[in-house]
Amino acid sequence: MTMRxxxxxxxxxxxxxxxxxxxxxxxxxxxxxxxxxxxSIEAKNKERVWLxxxxxxxxxxxxxxxGLTGDHNIYKLRGEQDxxxxxxxxPKKMYFVFDLSASMFRFNNHDRRLERSMEVxxxxxxxxxxxxxxxxxxIIGHSGDSPNLEFVKEGRYPKTEKDVFKVIxxxxxxxxxxxSGDNTLSATSMAMRExxxxxxxxxxxxxxxxxxxxxxxxxxxxxxxxxxx
Length: 229
Hints:
Blueprint: H1 2-10, H2 14-45, E1 48-54, E2 58-59, H3 64-68, E3 75-80, E4 92-99, H4 102-106, H5 108-111, H6 113-127, E5 135-142, E6 149-152, H7 161-177, H8 184-195, E7 202-207, H9 220-224
Parallel strand pairs: 4-5, 4-7
Antiparallel strand pairs: 1-3, 2-3, 5-6
């Protein structure tokens, strides 16, 4: 009965839930650890401090001399301090660019490369939930079909377990049915150009690829200058 109730809450079939939980079990520790880090960042941003030099509130015992000399601003109040110069004012933009080429599906039985990529995608979506105002992320795929396959758009994030499962299912299915070929370089270049179009606190592009860069004649310096390609 408990499992049936949980499935009803998730709005997923037993088969879907089994696949989802198999991914979750492998990354749940990492999700907890990452959320602790994100929560600490959030807490620091909202930290309440003593605001001094106030005209009312609790007496500030470090201002006794000033009080004796007639200063009225000798009180302190609990409140949220204005962000310090340099503190994050806008979200950090993050693009996670996943390799969903045919080879990811073809060699998955050999080293679980596609399954492990889906676990990473799940970890990202679950970890950043409710922190999107500080970390605006997108999940993009690349394959022989295209260098820019949008699965999670900034501002349109999965809200439920069913939503998350739908994303990773679509990503996995694309790898199974896409054309052969590689777009690692094009995907990297496109992501680096697109991410800086809007103002942000920082820009981070993470690219996953199983490309044999030697076979495709991709050199490290090509990736280094990919923004201008």
